[in-house]
Design brief:
homohexamer, alpha/beta, 6-stranded mixed β-sheet, 3-stranded mixed β-sheet
């Protein structure tokens, strides 16, 4: 199975997936993912990017390697991976995934836990489990559905139809399209923007989005006052408001600001 | 009113709507629908297709025939039809609707209970109730909204604007578009694919989609482990995994597989 | 801050926003909004339109004016504005917003409480709060998300990317696009249509849409029978059914009907 | 299996369960229940009472009779029964169940669909399915839990512990306790009170309770205005308000009023 | 109708209800309530207590005064009152209601918006609306149900059975019971405790309770991290942790602490 | 901080908490809990019991040890603990907690993730966080509320009032009361019963309870058919049905059965 490692570069964190040869490093996808996420959560990074050395996101080159462990092992394995995906969704800073190749099954379900997904012409995203007589077990069905709606989700999940990069942005499965050859640049620009952005504002809005997607508008309405409380007092807000107010008075556009995350 | 009948052809079931002349067969839409759905649920079919002899899906040619029964009768009638629609949503195999003509009001609400909806150039879908001073009473408003989002739903339901076939696929109200003259072929191909597909995988994914649409991502997350449990042990999964694993090892594309439903 | 006033013209109500010079009329945005909504709720109007004298919808020309009041004042202020927005959503007749210029932040969040939003080429809609180190506090995040889905909402809310008029209709953030120079005409036509429409049917369908957006399909299903009960007995329904039945029997299109709201 | 029949006595309806000898009348529990509920829904009754000739509510004297039909038949059977239970919950008038003996498994799940449950010293209620290696399939787990809370529900459902009549009232599983020998009288009094009560008020409050139990307080809050709209105009409200106002002015207690249901 | 006024005494706020003679002060219940709540929200109080000069909480001595305004006026009136109740629930400090007499209908629904309810032997709480052929329109049904469960809620709301003070605590409808003659003392002690308590901790826990009651455990789980974030940095937390740590090290009980609210 | 270890004894698993001296073993509560839960999930046990060597469940003897790590560390720590609690709730077998002493704060929140809680006269359960100027951050507020209702939850969480063993059972915070000196026996009996019970039935009912508590009755209704599907075919069901059917035919009580878990 493939394995993850966490790297930290200033306020930017990266979780990188390495494709291992079949059987080479044992059943480490779940354990290395969990460890990488826990490590990321304990640092002071302000954005986390998911990339892959091969450009692809898959669990293993050899599914038989997985299924040979028995159904009880497999159900514990997917429960463990899914627990890590929810930990990603609950991180207190934004997350970005970037895929130039194939993100399939559990590999794609992992990326569906991120806030932003950057794709390009060579990207293919899919949920092939049904075509193999099984089903997504790490949250993929409901996360595809909330992004693309019921009709398209029926084709992607029930009929296992893959989605190419440009279509993924068109239908709302991905957030950013990078022209050919610019995947790295578009991703880096977005990651840098987020690393220098208002980290606490991001946390608040991400929480509202999660509340909405899980429990609807009324639930987000109810949590809103508590979640946004105190934000106005942050260092970032105080500085930005001063600058924005000045710009608006002078009828100038808002300046691109840099934030401390505090 | 129009009437339904159920037919079984091997693992394929069909519920067929017949347009009756006004007043000809009494108030049978609700009773024949319920009986057809119960009959379908008791067989061993693996897919259920809804078609209409006339190409249209409407409750009656003469609305006055309905409303003349009084509001108490009418409310009991729609409650009964809606109960059948929810039984359709809860069937343990996938469902397909195919419309070449007009599906309006209660006729369209019925089709909104299906997983797949195949349309063509001559198709028109609509919720005209508001333009008649009443309102959809069989689940149409919320099922249109979950498919096309709030803005388009406001126009379709509040303003009673109908949607043509090609637009229906574009906005996610329908799942499949059939070019002119190919409605029957596209529908048949889809029905055959589903009849030979992994019935138990379909059941699992359909249940996750229903849980998501009714209670959000968190609810589907919670039900997921139980719903997917045991799937790996099915005959279909065991066979498909073996074939898929072989193909992936040989770097071949996944073969189109046939499943037993077991 | 800017101020609102309510005007009534027969069965049409209007809440009009006036841009005041900075500091000119004190902190009146919240108070005048609440009073206008309460006034509207107490009349017998059948539609409520939100317009702005300047064409823009913003809270103030000088954000410093707001933030200078302190965070406790500001949190009470936004709670108060948000309470008015929910009162708008709960009005018993449909609501229309029309924007030819910029609707930003709290001004845009207000319009997201309306059923219909008419835009044109010069319209710009946005949630710039995050770019100022704060966050939307009047329901904007969840109401953008329910309209455009998670991926686009992430860009609009987390990255503060504004949306132009034509794109707003394309992605479902607005309901109606008016060609250049026709904003007023398109808005007026829609408002007149609604003012002469089946007010009680609108109330029923709006309630179902709100139930769906807040609690999902199952919740709307459960409330549906109660919400729709009695509608068939209204004067509007009785008249319209008679006319519609006649038209259908004669195989004529449904006539555009005028309703009394009763 | 046991069978149901519907009887109408003025504004009171009754669905009565007859214990049949094993194998005697085929697999009719589901069909006769559905037919009885549909019949009740089509009349003008104002209350529906569930009683049993033997005093017990069980599906069959011989479970082997059920399970011998195969798991696919059994799953269709329980889906059908559960569909009837939800139809009971959605009736537009209140429902009363009265049990002097044992209500177990599917028989008890049926009664959990009623608004009121009258018990006595000899009553025993239970969910024995887990102790037989299966599980409640007609909504019993969630309906017990919403009545008695998580801790007691764990014992009743997971450990299959039955509940005696007096305890059932104490913990909120039943609503009314009848002293020894008075089950019939207490039930009749309650049924008569409801049959002469404000039927439309009951419908409104029952709908709010269902909305609350399914989707929480916020959802009921949202549906409330629509559900309660128009109630003040009913004949019953007009008459009762006049009488109540008079009594309050005279500082007298409210008179027990009789309502027409209109 | 009765009228409210707001008073501030240091960090304690009070909203006091005055019983006016019939017709004396016009239709001011809703307006004076809204103004009092808005006033309370704009101060720096840390607890808000609801009391009544007469000991009773009712809307009016003469219901005919209310209903004579017509159903449209009445529906707007209850919508307005309900909006104020939700504003109470959303205040950023705890709320206490104290009732020695009768709290009925809209008066009781108001108190159901408070965190704490202190009662005594002479207290009576009730929802008499159904017995008058109408229904609670300000949130009472769902708020009684969430406190006492479905079975007791059915009796209190559908059958209009009132609840006496001691029973109200027993079944969870009220939080505190005051022995005869001590209502004022028990209330004052509680209000003082809250006024000197950790205001920001209260805000966090109140928000979690509201999220739970509206959208269930999963929704509160999702909002929890955001809602609790930053609490550890408050002045109150820093001081209390130091003292608690010291006490625990010395194996002493936790000292009763006084908090600044900051 | 205190530390956990996992032990397996046939089909019974145990997670045991050891109280370590302050500072002795570093910050290991979270890491050892997660590892113990993952280990439990990977075995073939059929029940998991939580016990403590000291009889108490607390995070640390010295809270200053925790808070000294800084608020960012602390928030990551609680997020990690909470992630383990949810993994406990999602285990595929039942869980039992047994407390003879004090379970406070995070220690009590952990036990709230279990299905059964056995207490005795010397037990004390509590959420003291608010009294320390902070708030429960591992799900305690919402899990206390769902067990004891809103009124009692307000006292336990907002006012930090502890609950003694007998009261805990009375109000539904705990499931089983053990008389003095019998805590171990009552716990062992329950654990043995569960270890020999119908593991797959337990999994189904636990999933329905979780669905209900998170998303209400309607959500559990929707998931029910999928979650219960296939249960009738298990070895345990087949054997038990045969025995039960035989007993019922002979009018004997159901025999206490032993199950294989398959």
């Amino acid at each position: 199975m493939n394995t993850f490692r966490f790297e930290k570069d200033g306020s930017i964190g990266r979780i990188i997936l390495t494709d291992n040869p079949p059987g080479k490093q044992g059943l480490s996808f779940g354990d290395t993912l969990r460890n990488a996420v826990i490590a990321a959560n304990r640092t002071d990074i302000r954005v986390l990017a998911f990339t892959s050395e091969s450009g692809n996101f898959t669990v293993t080159k050899d599914p038989a390697e997985l299924f040979a462990q028995g159904h009880q092992w497999f159900e514990a394995f997917t429960a463990d991976v899914f627990s890590s995906i929810r930990m990603i969704e609950e991180l207190r800073f934004p997350t970005v995934a970037s895929v130039g190749g194939r993100a399939m099954g559990g590999g794609f379900e992992l990326l569906l836990g991120c806030d932003f997904l950057v794709v390009t012409d060579t990207t293919a995203l899919g949920i092939p489990e049904v075509s193999m007589g099984v089903a997504p077990m790490a949250g993929g069905v409901q996360r595809v559905a909330e992004r693309v709606g019921r009709a398209r989700a029926a084709r992607i999940t029930l009929l296992s139809e893959p989605v190419k990069g440009p279509d993924a942005v068109e239908i709302g499965l991905a957030t950013h399209f990078a022209p050919a050859g610019e995947l790295s640049k578009v991703t880096t620009d977005l990651v840098n923007q987020l690393a220098n952005g208002p980290t606490q504002s991001y946390a608040v809005v991400r929480s509202l989005l999660r509340n909405w997607k899980s429990s609807g508008v009324a639930s987000a309405d109810i949590a809103m006052a508590s979640i946004t409380s105190g934000l106005l007092k942050t260092e970032d807000a105080q500085n930005a408001i001063t600058k924005a107010s000045q710009a608006l008075k002078n009828q100038q556009p808002l300046p691109r600001m840099t934030f401390s995350g505090k």
